[in-house]
Amino acid sequence: MATGTQPPASGTDPRRAGHGVRGATRAAIAPRHLRTDRWWLAPAGTAAGLLAFVVYSTWRAFSNSDYYAAPYVSPFYSPCLAENCVPMRHGPNWELFGGWWGLSPALLILVFPLGFRLTCYYYRKAYYRGFWASPPACAVAEPHTSYTGETRFPLVLQNLHRYFFYAAVLVGVVLTYDTVLTFRDEQYAWGHMGVGTLLFLVNIGLIWAYTLSCHSCRHIIGGRLRHFSKHPVRYRLWGWVGRLNQRHMQLAWASLISVAACDFYVYLLATGAFADPRLF
Ligand code: FES
Questions:
Q1: Are 92 and 133 in contact (CB under 8 A)?
Q2: How do residues 220-273 score in pLDDT, each as one tens digit?
Q3: What secondary structure letter does DSSP report for 90?
């Protein structure tokens, strides 16, 4: 006999009934929401910020020029893997691919960091709200008539996030290498530092903080364990990653801005807008 504490039969469970049919679990109120604050501000700001980055990065990725000014290489073009990369005295020769049909070598590499960000849990929330209004904000009904979550193509591809995380770690290693190489001058002599070096240092710090604060990273380090007490090292690492994870949204934005700033700085140097001020 059913009691008040037992769940209803699956056919009448409102949580299940809500999948695929909008409104099955919503209160019967006529307005789309009862919020009186400026709830639209956050999704509108998010959409504007992401759109600005998409426009800027698309322009830079397709421009195929002005991405190297010794000793700096733009993070959008690193590692530069195509034969049509501009000559760089930048360590090992990365030219693994042919002419890439004259297309920008950035397109070869950007798929990995962009895939990482596109499938990031925070960015999903940001662009689902900002661009698709799904939902636009808490307690505001979405305009779509059905909800299938991330169970169907193309959104099921969001589950590739963990693999993009591994790729992002490799890209992070290369960008770290690039940052070390900025401790040279234009003639590639070591022991120098310019304003660009500072910019690259901040950027690589933010890139790693964002990458390591990833939810997938947190699960890789501390997930699937029965007893933390038997894995003290992983427990300690999990704690650190967890603290970073609390700032994941801020790190997502800060690293997005810093990577664009580094690219823009290299662009200005490469186009001769000014010379890199040397600190020593
Ligand atoms: Fe944001 Fe993994 S969840 S990078």
A1: no
A2: 999 989 999 999 999 999 999 999 999 999 999 999 999 999 999 999 999 999
A3: S
Q: How far does the centroid of ligand 1 lie from the alpha carbon of residue 217, in Å? A: 8
Token pair of 176, please? Answer: 């770290």
Residues with CB under 6 A from ligand 1: 120-122, 161, 165, 214-216, 248
> Residue 204: which of 182, 237, 184 has the closest Cα?
182
CA 196 to each of CA 79, 118, 200, 269: distance values in angstroms, whole numbers, following the listed order: 18, 28, 6, 10
* Residue 277 and residue 269 in contact, taking contact as beta carbons nearer than 8 Å: no
pTM score: 0.86
Residues paired with residue 194 on neighbouring β-strands, in sequence order: 278
Most confident of 7-16, 25-34, 79-88, 179-188: 179-188
- The domain segmentation of the chain, as residue ranges, is 39-270
Q: Return the ligand 1 atom nearest residue 216 CA.
A: 2
204-215 pLDDT tens trace:
999 999 999 999
- Model confidence at 199: pLDDT above 90: yes
Distance between Cα 89 and ligand 1 center (Å): 33
